[in-house]
Here is the input.
Amino acid sequence: MSTRGKFVTIEGCDGCGKSTQLAMLSEALGRRGIPCLFTREPGGSRIAERIREMLLDPANAEMTDECEALLYAAARVQHLREKVIPALEEGRLVVCDRYVDSSYAYQGEARGLGYEAVKAINRYALAPDVTIFLDLSPKEAFLRKHGADAGDRLESAGEAFHEKVYRGYLRIAEKEPERFLCIDARKTPEEIHREILSVLTGRGIL
Ligand code: TYD
Here is the structure.
């Protein structure tokens, strides 16, 4: 496996600018002619996309937290075996929009299942070489989107959930500082993009 490609995942709370950065990174890697695969979770393969529909369907309101965590893990392993591992074996750089850290933050912390349960459920998940966390608190993301006068709405239950997700990510940053790299997402998109390129270069990935 020593000649295999590298596996990079990108994480962050809602509104952190992840999509913008993924588009900029994809363009930069394309320009450099680096063979890569950009993919996302949940989804990225036919079966995993079917599971994604189930997970994100608002009609499935009665889905239990455990069922949710297991479905994310099921979609993950299917996508991994079908898409990620073959691309790595071809020596491609794989960049995945969300991965197992989303499960630690959303299911483990915000839903309250706990780190160990999520770890056990995800025993087949290959560890990423590097994870880039776009560090923007939900409060900052919300203010950026709606302006500083929208303060009260931050107190809603939805906001409390997203604060827990953010706390979950910060816990991973404490636990695994070597792999899980935080980038200050309050900077401009260009600054963040340059930082991502420099982190990946520093890790020998670019
Ligand atoms: P998506 O529309 O892809 O959101 P985003 O653009 O924020 O990435 O929806 C994915 C949702 O699934 C998102 O709210 C995060 C959540 N999620 C989990 O709760 N657990 C997981 O393991 C993963 C991969 C995603």
Remarks:
- The chain has one domain: 7-202.
- DSSP finds eight helices and five strands in the chain.
- Residues 14, 41-42, 72, 97-98, 102-103, 106-107 surround thymidine-5'-diphosphate (CB under 6 Å).
- The beta strands are 7-12, 36-40, 93-97, 130-135, 180-184.
